[in-house]
Design a protein that fits this description.
The protein is α/β, with parallel strands linked by helices and about 130 residues long. The chain has one domain: 5'-nuclease (Rossmann fold, 3-Layer(aba) Sandwich). It has helices at about 5-15, 20-30, 40-50, 65-70, 80-85, 100-110, and strands at about 1-5, 35-40, 75, 115, 130. A five-stranded parallel β-sheet has the order 3-2-1-4-5. The longest helix is centred in the last third of the chain and has 13 residues, at about 100-110. The chain is globular, with a radius of gyration of 14 Å.
């Protein structure tokens, strides 16, 4: 299975914080699965850290690509096709986070299951989102 971690799931997995669900932990450890983190998450980490909304516990935003590679995961670029077509993702009134929406659109279009415990994400299942949590 192709897995794409949302930003929170990536941070929790890298920090081994215990906040991932048991099924998500099993999926990440399964050698038959491929795990990716989008550059969108690096952008979100950098922005929120710079605004003081995210504590990185001594790490710098620039460290996260290396952390992802050291974990044995892939870094997924944001393609021009995904960026240009992301406005086609249906609007869910209570969910407007642009980072989440790019990750959701990427997962739907690239065939990933999105590793996320976000309560808003199941609303996108009718539009093709597969969630691993």
């Amino acid at each position: 299975m192709k897995l794409l971690l949302d930003t929170c799931a990536a941070l929790w997995a890298l920090q081994d914080s215990g906040q991932l669900s048991a099924p998500a932990r099993r999926a990440l450890k399964n050698p038959d699965n491929s795990v990716s983190v989008s550059v969108v998450s690096f952008w979100e980490i950098s922005l929120k850290s710079g605004l003081g909304k995210l504590a990185l516990h001594g790490a710098e935003p620039e460290d996260f690509p290396r952390f992802v590679v050291e974990a044995g995961w892939s870094i997924l670029p944001l393609s021009e096709e995904i960026a240009a077509s992301s406005g086609r993702l249906p609007r869910i009134p209570e969910h407007r986070d642009p980072f989440d929406r790019l990750l959701i659109w990427t997962a739907i279009n690239e065939g990933f299951a999105l590793v996320s415990g976000d309560d808003d994400f199941p609303a996108y299942a009718p539009h093709g989102l597969k969630i691993c949590w």
